[in-house]
Amino acid sequence: MKAINYSRVFAAIIFCFILVICHNGYAQTVDLTLLKPEIKYQTEKKDQEPKLKKSKVSTLEKQMQEINLKLQKVTRQVIIVGAVLFVILFGLGYHIYRSKQRFRQQLKLQQAVINTKNRSLLTLIKEKDGLLIEKEWLMKEIHHRVKNNLQIMISLLNTQLAYLDNDAAYNAVKESQQRMQSISLVHQKLYQSENLALVNLQAYVNDLIGYLSDSFDSTSRITFETDVAAIELDVTTSVPIGLILNEAITNAIKYAFPQNAHGTISISLQLLTTGMYELKIHDNGIKDVAVADITGSKTLGMNLMKGLSKQLNGKLTVENNEGITITLKFADYKLLKAV
C-alpha cells in the first residue's frame, strides 16, 4: 500500500512538473508572440537612432555653420564700423590737432603784433610824456616871462611917474600900472600852479585885493569881503575878469568913500549853472549916485569894462542898491561845449 502511495505521489509530482514546464513554454510562446511588435519597434528604433543622430549632428553642424557665418558677418561689420569710426576719430583728432596748431600759430603772430604795438605805444607814451613835460616847462617859462615883462613895464611906468607933474597924466599912468598888475597876477598864478591851463579865481581875487589895497593905502579904512567859489577858468577868461575886477575895485576905492571915509567892498563870484557864472562888486559908499551917470560916463575904466564884458559874451549891469553894485553874468563856452 505504501508503495502504491509513493508511486502515486511521484506520478503526481512528475505530472505537476510536466504541467509547469508546459505552462512555462506556453507562456513564453504567448509572450514572444505579444512582444514581437515591441521587439520590432525597438529594433527599428535602434536601427533609426544612428540615422537620427546623424541628422541631428548634420542639423547642428548646419546651425553651427550658420552661426559661424553670422559671427563672421557681424565680425566683419564690427571691424568695418570700427575701422570707419577709427578713421573718423583719427580725422577729427588730426583736424583738432591742426586747428590747435594753427590757432597757436595765430596766437603767436597776434601776440607778436600786440607786443610790437605795445612797444610802439610805450615809445609813443614816453615821447608824449616827454613832450608834455617839455610843453609844461615851456608854458611855465612863457607865463613867467610874460609876468616878468609886465613887471618890467610896470617898473618903467613907476619910474615915469617920478617925472610927471600933471595930475591927470599921473593918474592915467598909475591906472595903467594897476591894469598891468592885474594881468601879471594871472600869469603869475598860472606858472606857480600845477595846472598851467586854469587860474584859481579864489587865490587870484585875494591877491588882486591885497595889491590894490596896498597900492591905494586903504587897508585901515576899507574892509574887503569876499565870497568866491572854488572856480577855475582859463587864461582867456581870467584876464578879462581880472581887468573888470581891477576897474570896479579901483573906482570903488577912489570914489565911493570920499574924504577917507570908512566902508566895505564886497566881491562875489558864484557858479549859477553848469558853465554860467555871476560876478558882483558892491560897495556901501555913496548912496545918492545916479546909475545913469556911471553907465553913461565916457571914462576909460567904464568903456574897458563894457568892452571886456562883450568879449566874454556877458551881460554887465550897474545898480544903486544902498551903494553901487556892478554885476557881470558870463559863460565859459568851452565848458558848455564840452557838456
- How would you state the average pLDDT, rounded? 81
At CATH level 3, the topology of the domain at 197-339 is Heat Shock Protein 90
- State the helicity in percent bands: over 70%
* CATH 2nd-level architecture of the domain at 197-339: 2-Layer Sandwich
Any idea of the CATH class of the domain at 197-339?
Answer: Alpha Beta
Give me the Rg, rounded: 66 Å
Number of strands: 7
Secondary-structure content class = alpha+beta
CATH 4th-level superfamily of the domain at 197-339: Histidine kinase-like ATPase, C-terminal domain
Low-confidence parts, pLDDT < 50 over ≥5 residues? 25-32
Q: Helix tally?
A: 7
Cα separation of the termini? 173 Å
Sheet of most strands = 5 strands, mixed
Question: Which sequence of strands runs across the widest sheet?
Answer: 2-4-5-7-6
Secondary-structure element pattern, one letter each: HHEHEEHEEHHEEH
Q: Rough shape?
A: rod-shaped
Strand content: 5-15%
Transmembrane segments: 78-97
Organism: Mucilaginibacter pineti
EC number: 2.7.13.3
Domain Histidine kinase/HSP90-like ATPase: 236-334
